[in-house]
Write a structure and sequence with these properties.
The complex is a heterodimer. By secondary structure, chain A is an all-beta fold. In chain A, about 0% of the residues lie in helices and about 55% in strands. In chain A, the strands form two sheets. In chain A, strands 2, 4, 5, 6, 9, 10 and 11 form a seven-stranded mixed β-sheet that branches. In chain A, strands 1-3-8-7 form a four-stranded antiparallel β-sheet, with no helix packed on it. The radius of gyration of chain A is 13 Å and the shape is globular. Chain B starts with a strand and ends with a strand. Chain B is about 0% helix and about 50% strand. The mean pLDDT of chain B is about 95. By secondary structure, chain B is an all-beta fold. The chains are: A mainly beta, B mainly beta.
Chain lengths: ~120, ~110
């Protein structure tokens, strides 16, 4: 059974940093792209970014709203994907979901339950 | 960026009803369209990919159709566990974008 478990969320002040982790099990982690999607309170879903599998260069792409501030990485030996969030803004307050699927191009086949990030002073 | 719209934004229905949700893309996305189900406190679930392919394990009462710019998600006979919010999403190009969602609640 595929499982994705996000961790690392919490309350953080504007301008500070936070790193989210997504621990995966039940599939060959290194074979798949990993993505992050967020949902602000009362709002819809917003794609944040993804990282391709190493077989496709492990390259990343990001939404314009987070480009230059957020970085996605992966540790295939531990089956963990990371979302490093710097220079956080109040607009980044959201539930952050980790998703898996696809290789060269991501698909959101499986999702975690999400972790809440609140950016507030 | 490709904009996704959905209609209706919400609907009330009864168990056993046939429910149809429409999704429209601002430009042609071929069949690069997926549908997701979200329930509070639960992991979102992929229902349909490539516009009409049923994800493994998803009940056959869910179906998808369409290509180009116009797509439809149909629930043939609504069940109690189907009350949720549904989102469409295009994977034709980045930024990957979602529709605003359709909330299905109990009539």
């Amino acid at each position: 059974e595929v499982q994705l478990v996000e961790s690392g969320g919490g309350l953080v002040q504007p301008g500070r940093s936070l790193r989210l982790s997504c621990t995966a099990s039940g599939f060959t982690f290194g074979d798949y792209a990993m993505s992050w999607v967020r949902q602000a309170p009362g709002k819809g879903l917003e794609w944040v970014g993804f990282i391709r599998s190493k077989a496709y260069g492990g390259t990343t792409e990001y939404a314009a709203s987070v480009k230059g501030r957020f970085t996605i990485s992966r540790d295939d030996s531990k089956s963990i994907a990371y979302l490093q969030m710097n220079s956080l803004k109040t607009d980044d307050t959201a539930v952050y979901y980790c998703t898996s699927g696809g290789q060269l191009w991501p698909s959101f086949d499986y999702w975690g339950q999400g972790t809440l990030v609140t950016v507030s002073s | 960026d490709i904009q996704m719209t959905q209609s209706p934004s919400s609907l009330s229905a009864s168990v056993g009803d046939r429910v149809t949700i429409t999704c429209r893309a601002s430009q042609s996305i071929s069949s690069y369209l997926s549908w997701y189900q979200l329930k509070p406190g639960k992991a979102p679930k992929l229902l349909i990919y490539a516009a009409s392919s049923l994800q493994s394990g998803v009940p056959s009462r869910f179906s998808g159709s369409g290509s180009g710019t116009d797509f439809t998600l149909t629930i043939s006979s609504l069940q109690p566990e189907d009350f949720a919010t549904y989102y469409c999403q295009q994977s034709y190009s980045t930024p990957l974008t979602f529709g605003p969602g359709t909330k299905v609640d109990i009539k």
